[in-house]
Amino acid sequence: MHSDCIVIEGSNMAECHPVAFRWVMQAKLAGATVIHVDPRFTRTSAMADIHAPLRAGTDIAFLGGLIHHVIEHEKYFKEYVVHYTNAATLVRDDFKDTEELEGVFSGLHGYDGDPLNGFVGQYDTASWQYVSGDTGTQRAGDGAMTGQVSQNPAKRGDMAGKGPEVGANPPPQGPPFDGMVRAMKKPPPPRDETLQDPRCVFQIVKRHFSRYTPEMVERVTGCPKDVFLKVAEAITRNSNPERTTAFCYAVGWTQHTYGPQLIGTCAMLQLLLGNIGRPGGGILALRGHATIQGSTDIPTLYHSIHGYMPALSTLKQHETLADYLKTETLPASYWSNTPKFFVSYLKSMYGAAATVENDFGYGWHPRIAGDHSHLPMTIAMMEGRVKGMFAMGQNPAVGAQNARLQRKALAKLEWLVVKDNFETETAAFWRTSPEVQNGELKTEEIQTEVFLFPSAQVGEMDGSFTNTQRLVQWHAKAADPPGDCRSDLWFTVHLGKRLKAHYAASTLPRDQGIKHLVWDFDADHPEPGSRIPDEPDARKVLREVNGYRSADGRHLTSAAELKDDGSTTCASWIYCGIYPEPGKNLAESRVPDAPEGPQTHLGWAFAWPSNRRTLYNRASARPDGKPWSERKKYVWWDGKRWTGHDVPDFPLTKAPDAPAKPDAIGLDAHAGTDPFILKVDGKGWLFAPTGLVDGPLPTHYEPVESPVQNPLYKQQTSPVLKMWRRDDNVIASQDPRYPHVLTTYRLTEHHLSGVMSRWLPWLAELQPELFVELSPELAGAHGIDNLDLVRIATPRGAITAKALVTRRMRPLQIDGKTVHQVGLPWHWGYQGLVTGEVVNNLSALVGDPNVSIHEGKAFVCNVEKA
Amino acid sequence: MAEPMGFFTDTTVCIGCKACEVACKSWNQISSTNGGQNVLSGDSYDNTRKLDGEHWRHVKFIEQFSEDRVSESRWLMMSDVCKHCVQAGCLEVCPTGAIIRTEFDTVVIQQDACIGCRACLPACPFGVIDINPVTHTAQKCTLCYDRMQVGMTPACAQACPTASIQFGPLVQLRKKAEDRVAQLHSQGKEEAYIYGDEAILGGLNSFYLLVDNPEVYGLPVAPKLPSRNLWRSSFAAAFGAAVLGLWGLVSLRTRKRGAKAEGPSSGDGGGDGGKKGAAP
């Protein structure tokens, strides 16, 4: 709403996030320029001032072209870049860029770990480091999470010998952990604030993107040069002290074998333009499901525990509590508090049983041993290595990649629990799936025992939603659910109680965790008038998430209260303060700003952390603490403290001219001009020495399946991506049998695999049948008319769909060759009121090396009249 | 009478999400095409096709793309609804008085008084009204009369995420619309204009901001009331009646002349017929 320019790329925001799109339209009504960069002309494009078409999967080339343009024409925000980013920091001499190695970085070698993890290669990241000093551990997105052994020199070889105090005075191994963290501290890396040193990040970035010219952008992406330059002009015109540009993306960016790198490219661009930490700037990750942001904060992810702390892993130095904290704590930055967050988390798991003597129950906590995400899990299921599965609000028989393989994998399970609104395709795979219909699977031979539990709906339970901008909003129950339908909370709490009862008598060490698990969510009093007297109390869950003093149960009011000695209990440090006292649930607060107010609406619900609406907002002020401009005034130094329209994301009384203290840990190690408090050097990273396993800089690679040769580098695809080569997961690239680009997506009228929409007449009638979107040019070439049945084939299989021939689809010229794009919405399946073939029968099990996201947005296909 | 209320639909911010269609059906509990098992129309993203007895809101999709996608590339969307005309044809022709003008200056079909005679269907110059297949009565948007009576916003306007559908007192809406057109003109979008001012049927209480000719959106350029033609048809009828009457008189005289020759029997027969006709 505060943006002067909004770029939507990798998202069909109007169709898939129509409520959030309200604010884009409000900004547009106030005069903002709206740009949509997308392979298709969608309902979002219809609302945009500029629609820039591009080939699916080439966004790094497009954004890299913008970075090139910004640097080449000196359109970057110089003062911001010098002071707030690592542009000036010097990188090691032995770092070799893709410019020198034909598309790969220094350190590439083969992968010799468990093939189930899927890596085709691996990087040794030693040469990517700063010249000296600490760059921190490999945090979220750590390769070790997805099955790589930790290679971080800052935490391994380097530290033992070179750390300043290590060896002389071995730090104690129990709380307080400050001494240990202090011992890990290294001096900051050298910088060249003239940005001229060839080894400084700025020069490396400049060289790296030197070949991403507008002409090259057109060759790779198919976006006409003049349209690309119009976009470049609009964003640079709207990025300066007076104006800000925002980017919005969704799974159009993530679902690639280089998804995190793609988002990283945007982060670099926004840092160069000075659009991070400022009102109307930033990068908005649009979350597509109800509270999916919440489900990464309090994660349903395998590779992290609450509040973005890495999961305990057998592949890292995580033997003991001290080992974990040594590996995962950043001595400088706010993450120096990791021991406080982590010990408080262990207290929330094991309560009174977690003591100093037993490392707060650290040894009881489950650990990961590789990539346990959906893709390798499916392979493991196929191989009979997984016995049972819970599918709660998940319909892999339709929604997951290579859905034929998914359904066959379901048949290998001993048991399957589906908890959903209706009998989904996953629940019914054993009787109505195409594999049963065509005889590949025989119902009488499937051994899987399927349990179907009906779900309560959102209006039938208390709970919270955390949305895109980290805003946690409470919702209240309006009515009892019908019949046997129960909330997920009810199901999970009662399942946990039964499991605890089951293991109560066990003396096995491995069962101690569940025995000691604190599981106290029963309501003190059943809800008056409810049929369900044993519905748990959602507020008790919120209390555990918020945290309390271990001794007397007093609610905590801020993460600053957390201790590393067990005296505080807190499941998720980032939510601390949401429930500061009994009866005061800030997620329920509903006090908007008056129309003449600052429009940050601090009285409306709770944004983690600390009710802060814009992260790193110290960057909204100049290095001296004054606002960059009156128009973009947000958080500033008033001579004594930081103040403004938002909760300042900075130590409140730390002056802008405060120097970094060389011997200090935490934020004292940062200067008053270091806004990025979660980064070890306090800077926004234009170059990522750690955190990513596929390169410190983004590089354009082709999707695993592509009709063309990579026009930028000899290296065709990411050299470290994840792939599972199997007869039932065949991959084809530059194969004349599959000459077109296929992309899949959602429509406004349906939600995901259709379980919340295809069963409802009011929604089903709006988009009743599967269709394939084709340009008239492609349709004409195959003699296909509108509404004809079309057969779409990929190396994994073929489906039929009705043709929707439209000029909203357009052929592109890629490197002198015409490339057609084919579009398929993937909402249909074989259950429900309206049915259709499963589009994900066509997609492949391939993944990104950092987070194992699949590549659902770009692969190859052929089409013909059915 | 309360203040006149209506809708201002700004099509330039309509994202075609159809939330209005669904919210309308949800609040008014309207059935779906073939119970939801509709067929793909092949006409852009429009599968409900038109306003009728089970679609009181309908989103139109108009694709305007040249072959090069450069000289012309637009996808227009518009949420259509009953216009709640100040001069409402449907209201004029309804034989049972089922169609009324409310205290909000809106037009409502009272379901308990509708006999499903279909007279209002052709009387609407916008083709808004149709018979609902479940109730067999004529149905259309009520502007959520029941919600308005308790001070609530109609369901569609409440659900519209981008404020394309705005609800409120007509005076305020007219002002907002005027300002929005001026804003668009100042941004160089000269094509923006209001459809539904007083020039059209005395004013449409549900009016639109459009960026192309009315026909592009399937709207009549100059809609007319059936009663507009009334004087002409009345005259024709009167003239016809006069001609018939004259012809009748002439033939009667002729017949009388003949009767004088043939006898009085046919005159008695005519008298019987007249009696029969008057009997009920």
SSE-based structural type of chain B: alpha+beta
Nearest-integer average pLDDT of chain A = 94
User: From the alpha-carbon coordinates, what is the Rg of chain B to the nearest angstrom?
Assistant: 25 Å
CATH class of the largest domain in chain A: Alpha Beta
- Strand fraction band of chain A? 5-15%
SSE topology sketch:
The complex is a heterodimer of chains A (866) and B (280).
Chain A: E1 5-9, H1 13-16, H2 18-29, E2 33-37, H3 43-47, E3 50-52, H4 59-72, H5 78-84, E4 108-109, E5 122-123, H6 157-162, H7 178-184, H8 201-208, H9 214-221, H10 225-237, E6 245-249, H11 251-254, H12 259-272, E7 283-285, H13 294-297, E8 304-305, E9 309-310, H14 321-328, H15 338-350, H16 374-382, E10 388-392, H17 396-399, H18 403-410, E11 415-420, H19 429-432, H20 434-437, E12 449-454, E13 463-466, E14 471-475, H21 488-503, H22 512-516, H23 538-546, E15 548-549, E16 568-569, E17 606-607, E18 635-637, E19 642-644, E20 722-723, E21 740-745, H24 761-764, E22 771-774, H25 776-781, E23 789-794, E24 797-805, E25 812-814, E26 817-819, E27 821-825, E28 846-847, E29 859-865
Parallel strand pairs in A: 1-2, 1-6, 2-3, 6-7, 10-11, 11-12, 21-27, 22-24
Antiparallel strand pairs in A: 4-5, 8-9, 13-14, 14-17, 15-16, 18-19, 20-28, 21-29, 23-24, 23-29, 25-26
Helix pairs in contact in A: 4-9, 4-12, 16-18
Chain B: E1 5-10, H1 19-28, E2 58-65, E3 73-80, H2 89-93, E4 99-101, E5 107-109, H3 120-123, E6 130-131, E7 138-139, H4 145-149, H5 155-159, E8 165-169, H6 170-186, E9 193-195, E10 206-210, H7 230-262, H8 265-278
Parallel strand pairs in B: 1-10
Antiparallel strand pairs in B: 1-8, 2-3, 4-5, 6-7, 9-10
Account of the protein in words:
The complex is a heterodimer of chains A (866) and B (280). Chain A has 866 residues and is of the alpha/beta class. Chain A folds into 4 domains: 1-121 and 187-286 and 614-689, Dimethylsulfoxide Reductase, domain 2, CATH 3.40.228; 290-372 and 470-612, no CATH class; 375-458, no CATH class; 722-865, Barwin-like endoglucanases. Helix content of chain A is 23%, strand content 13%. Chain A has 25 helices and 29 strands. A 6-stranded mixed beta sheet of chain A has the order 22-24-23-29-21-27. A 5-stranded parallel beta sheet of chain A has the order 3-2-1-6-7. In chain A, a hairpin with a 2-residue loop joins strand 25 and strand 26 (817-819). The relative contact order of chain B is 0.16. Chain B is 33% helix and 16% strand. Chain B is of the alpha+beta class and 280 residues long. The longest helix of chain B has 33 residues, at 230-262. In chain B, strand 2 (58-65) and strand 3 form a beta hairpin. Chain B has a 4-stranded mixed beta sheet. Chain B is globular and about 75 Å long. Chain B has 2 domains: 5-224, Alpha-Beta Plaits (2-Layer Sandwich); 229-278. The model of chain B is unreliable at 258-280 (pLDDT under 50). Chain B contains 8 helices and 10 strands. The A-B interface holds A 14-15, 18-19, 21-22, 25, 28-29, 41, 43-47, 51, 53, 747-749, 760-769, 771, 786-787, 802, 804, 806-808, 810, 833-834 and B 13, 15-19, 21-22, 25-26, 31-40, 42, 44-45, 47-48, 63, 65-67, 69, 73-77, 161-163, 183.
